[in-house]
Design a protein that fits this description.
globular; about 280 residues; seven-stranded mixed sheet; alpha/beta; two-stranded antiparallel ribbon; 2 domains
Length: about 280
């Protein structure tokens, strides 16, 4: 495009990185913050501690939810910057590719986890809650074959927020994660099977208040017996939203391997050596 037209377009439709750098949708510095390998961050999300002997849900994040990262995510979710989809979905697709090898044992020959090829209920035998981290459990199905594939489940957005944004950005992340898992050799597909009723905004609430706010607010739309799921969200803070989603999926008969998020809010206990790569 000739430079005069470029200049006119920028005048009529100005664009800037959320950090303030003009004339780019995102700058190199902000993009770099989402370029690192995914790291395990569940240690900082206290609400993921189930207190039942099962280890906390593994959670991978690309970066810390601070400074420019917060600016990018807020602009993307709540200020109409759908043009940032390309940056964030691309980053999470790469992260999922790295996590794929960790999830593959759940999909091995004779593995228990099956995702239904249509909207009917899954009919495969699932693993017990206590054994889910080791992927142990009997296999088997009846009534025809099912496709062994990870169900990539976006954490649900409440209706009012979805209508205000005129879209559900976390679903875009889930679709990217499914593609990344496939890139890494793990069969997967997006499965938006959770719904969330309207609750008070989580912003500004402490860990306990977040948990109470989400109690019984998330549910699965159908039975998911024998399915294995990977949750996806944009940010993890206390872990209350992921915990509620995990509980809803398990109540529907599914098994949850872990979660992948863009960013994690640092906890006061964060320090060198706490995060581990996949």
């Amino acid at each position: 495009m000739p430079q005069p037209f470029v200049d006119l377009t920028r005048l009529l439709l100005p664009v800037a990185c959320p950090c303030g750098e003009p004339d780019v949708r995102w700058c190199g510095r902000c993009a770099e913050r989402f370029a690192g390998p995914p790291v395990r961050t569940e240690h900082g999300a206290g609400r993921l501690d189930r207190l039942d002997g099962v280890p906390p849900l593994p959670v991978w994040a690309l970066t810390a939810y601070t400074g420019p990262v917060r600016d990018v995510v807020v602009h993307w979710k709540d200020r109409g910057r759908a043009d940032l989809d390309l940056l964030l979905t691309g980053a999470l697709r790469r992260a999922a590719r790295d996590v794929a090898s960790w999830s593959l044992p759940a999909l091995g020959a004779g593995g228990p986890f099956l995702f239904p090829p249509d909207d009917s209920a899954a009919r495969a035998g699932g693993a017990s809650r206590a054994g889910r981290r080791s992927f142990a459990g009997p296999a088997g199905s009846r009534g025809g074959p099912a496709e062994a594939v990870l169900a990539v489940v976006p954490v649900p957005t409440a209706g009012p927020a979805r209508r205000r944004r005129a879209r559900d950005p976390v679903r875009a992340l889930a679709a990217a994660v499914a593609r990344g898992l496939v890139d890494g050799g793990a069969p997967a597909r997006s499965a938006p099977v959770l719904r969330r009723r309207a609750t008070r905004d989580q912003v500004g609430l402490g860990a306990r208040a977040r948990g109470r706010n989400l109690a019984s607010a998330v549910r699965a739309v159908r039975r998911l017996d024998g399915c294995v799921c990977m949750l996806v969200d944009d940010v993890v803070t206390s872990g209350a939203t992921l915990a509620a989603s995990e509980q809803a999926l398990e109540s529907a008969g599914a098994d949850v391997l872990g979660a992948i998020v863009l960013a994690a809010t640092p906890s006061p206990s964060d320090g060198p050596g706490r995060a581990t790569t996949c």
